[in-house]
Structures are given as structure tokens and as C-alpha cells.
Amino acid sequence: MAIEIEMPKLTDTMEDGVLSAWLVDEGEKVSAGDVIAQVETDKATMDVEAFDDGVLLKKMIDEGESVPIGQLIAVLGDEGEDISDLVGGGDGADEEPSTDEAGADAAEDKAAVAKTTEQESSETAAAEPVGDGQVRDREPEPVPAGTDSEGRRIKASPLARRMAQDHGVDLASMDGSGPEGRIVRRDVEARIEEGEAAPAETKAAPTPQTSGEPAFEMPTSVLEEEGELYASENISQMRKTISRRLAQSKYTAPHFYLTVDIDMAKAMEARKQLNALTEKQDGPKISVNDFITKACALALREHPYVNASYLAEEGEIRKYNQVHVGVAVAIDEGLITPVIRNADRKGLGQISKETRELAGRARNRELQPEEFEGSTFTTSNLGMFGIEEFTAIINPPNAAILAIGEIRDVPVVEDGEVVPGKRMKVTLSCDHRVVDGAVGAQFLQDVQGYLEDPMNMLL
């Protein structure tokens, strides 16, 4: 019996995924638990496993294609099994669109049919008999989107269609390299590159403007001096999710901000002493960020509304009994927040070890979902880049995030005298639906207290 393999939901925020690599060929036998493909999600590149034994009968999408969760990506079954009812058969003009085309093409063709009907109506009215009883000539009817000049469906992935439309590429003139000759992204990219490499005189001349205003053209001298005016790249799955979630957070959660300037002299001295011990024990060095993670974790135990989420759909404010601190890590594609679980119960050495390991795995995109999901609070540190102070957007569904600036060497007044000091500004972004001003201020006071007297964190 044929088994449908669909695009799985691999992270809590995933809506679609890019199939980055097939690891099994059609006709190859697989066993339950075998990794058959790798998918780029919004957080990492993850493995797709087979849950049954069988033969990979058909790949429904090509490498590099993006499809939504639940869409068919492959069919597993017995060798020689007929799966035409799942993948469609024949090569006639009436062939139904493949599964990965249906959603995108339905809306596209519906709009095209509506446009065609409207045009036909106006043209019919224009073709009524006039004067001498003759009928005006009618323009040829437009070809519906997604078909060639003879009305046959062009097999192309949704991504390939969008790229072709954006770059003016005629899909009807192309041969596809995807499954069953379907046109995929790499085919359109190759055609675009060919067009860019073609001599200027072979390219279609631009349509002249009819508005009466002269068309603007970039002076040739400027183009020669500047070269390419811009570089573009496809939006990654991670960047799409960052855009969606942070925009939702910024415009849904009413943010307010609280800033304190913390005396870090004692914390820096304690760090120096602890690192001298860890060096002798061949342990990981403790960073300033480790101190901050621990201080926040301890303060979160005393302030349940900061360690909480506002869940509108459930109609509740959820106060968590465990403290899981997400630590923002910058990677090439964007930002990810590995989670230090039960950070309030762990020592500085353990926090340091876990943070380093998770950050390294994050940069290699090797994190598993349980390693970056489920935070109850988040910290973001830009101090290493010389940033003195900034505000961060709350990482949903958290109720707050702490933005950490650099440690500054500044003159301070102690006992009426000006002496060297070490100061660090931190800014707490709060969701006012959960955290009131006084609650956020008290939380920051406790974080400040732990960092200005770090021995309290050891009690």
C-alpha cells in the first residue's frame, strides 16, 4: 500500500520548508527511521525520516523548492506498485496540476479566468454591428495564466512561476529538469542568467512611454562607473519567520522600556577569580553573559509575571513554574535563541558550558527543536560590539526581554571622591498586557542587586 510522505512540522513556528537535499533516490529501499531528506526550516536544517519500510517510488518536489506543511513531498510503497492515483498519470493536455502546484495555481488561474471573462464581455460589446453592418476586428483572446499558446498546462513549481513573472521569463519556451519535466527554480535561474549574458542588441527594446514625459535613463557613464546597482538574494525561511514573528510582537504587544545602569566592578572581580579556578580545572571560562543569565534566572523566580506569557486565544496569562532563559545568538541567516533550561538551578560553570555548546551548534544550524523552543524569558547582548544601550523587541510568547550593553570604564563618585568605575546599561522591554511598570522595575532591581553583589547568586 502506497504511503504518502508530507512536509512535516519540524518547529513550533514553521509554516513551510525548503527541501534542501534528497538523500535517497527513486527506486531505493528505505527502512523506518532512515533519513530520506533534509529540510531547511525557519530555525535549522533538519532531517526528514521515513516512518515505514518500503521503496521510494516518487519524489513530488525537487531540491530547492519551498512547500507548506502537510503538502505531499514523496510516495513510499512496494516496488512496482501503481501510484498513478496519487501522482497523476499520462502526459495529455488535460493533466491535472501536481500537488505542489494546486494551491498556488488555483488562485492564479481563477484570477486569470475572471480577467479573461471581463475582457471578453467588453470585446463582445465592442463587436456589435455598426454603420455598414460590418463587425469590428477583435483582438486575440488572452491566454490564461499557467498555460501555453495551445491551452496546455505548463508544469512548473509555484516558486518558478513567481520568479518567471518577476523577470519576464516565458515558461512556455522552457524545458523543465524537475520530476516529470516540471520547471523548477534552477531552470528559471539558468534562463535569467542566459538573458543577462546575452548581447545588449538581442534583448527586447523597452516599450516607449506614452505619457508625454521623457523616459528616465541612467547615464551610461554612471553605469560604467558604478557597475551593478544592487545585489539581491532570496529571503531565507529564518528571515521570513523573524519578520513575521517580530512584526507581530511589535504591533500586538504594547512595549514599554526600563533602563538601569549597573555597577559591574564586583562582578568583574568575581569573574576573574572564578576563571582562575576554572583554568586550573580545565573548565570553560565564565563570561559576563553567564553572570547575567544566572542573575535573571534567580530574579525570575521572584517575579512570576515577568516569567509569563499573554495568551489571547486561550484567554489566559500563563505563569511558568520553570525558568528557561533564551540567549539570542547571531548567525549568518539571522537570529536564534538557544534555551538554557532551569537556569535558576544551575551553577555558573554549567550555564557557561551549555551556552557555548548551544551557540556553536546554532551557528552550524545543528540545533534540535527542543534546544531552541520553550523559553520563558530572553536576553540579547550587543555589548561585545561596542553598543552602549539599545532596546530589543520581545521574543513571543515571552513577556519580556533584556537588552544588554557594553561594560564601560567611566569615572564614578564614591564617598565624595571620583574614582574609576565599570558600568553596564541594561534595558528591559516589557509586554504591558502582563508586566506593569512597578513589576518590571522591581525585577530589574533584583537583577541589579545580584550583579552588583554576585556572592548572593551563590547562596
TrEMBL record:
UniProt xrefs under SUPFAM superfamilies: CoA-dependent acyltransferases, Peripheral subunit-binding domain of 2-oxo acid dehydrogenase complex, Single hybrid motif
Key words, A-Z: Acyltransferase, Lipoyl, Pyruvate, Transferase
Cofactor list: (R)-lipoate
Sequence ranges assigned to domain Peripheral subunit-binding (PSBD) in this UniProt record: 155-192
Span of domain Lipoyl-binding: 2-77
Composition-biased stretches (Acidic residues): 92-103
Signal peptide per UniProt: none
GO BP, sorted A to Z: pyruvate decarboxylation to acetyl-CoA
GO cellular component labels: pyruvate dehydrogenase complex
Note on cofactor: Binds 1 lipoyl cofactor covalently.
Cross-referenced PROSITE patterns: BIOTINYL_LIPOYL, LIPOYL, PSBD
Region Disordered: start-end pairs: 83-181, 194-215
InterPro entries from the UniProt entry: 2-oxoA_DH_lipoyl-BS, 2-oxoacid_DH_actylTfrase, Biotin_lipoyl, CAT-like_dom_sf, E2/Pdx1, E3-bd_dom_sf, LAT1, PSBD
Comp. bias regions, Low complexity: 197-210
Catalysis: reaction(s): N(6)-[(R)-dihydrolipoyl]-L-lysyl-[protein] + acetyl-CoA = N(6)-[(R)-S(8)-acetyldihydrolipoyl]-L-lysyl-[protein] + CoA
Superkingdom as given in the UniProt entry: Bacteria
Presence of the UniProt keyword Phosphoprotein in the record: no
EC number(s) recorded for this UniProt protein: 2.3.1.12
One family name in Pfam for this protein: Biotin_lipoyl
Molecular function GO terms recorded: dihydrolipoyllysine-residue acetyltransferase activity
Subunit record text: Forms a 24-polypeptide structural core with octahedral symmetry.
Function text: The pyruvate dehydrogenase complex catalyzes the overall conversion of pyruvate to acetyl-CoA and CO(2). It contains multiple copies of three enzymatic components: pyruvate dehydrogenase (E1), dihydrolipoamide acetyltransferase (E2) and lipoamide dehydrogenase (E3).
Entry similarity comment: Belongs to the 2-oxoacid dehydrogenase family.
Name of the featured protein: Acetyltransferase component of pyruvate dehydrogenase complex
Species of provenance: Longibacter salinarum
Taxonomy of the source species: Bacteria, Pseudomonadati, Rhodothermota, Rhodothermia, Rhodothermales
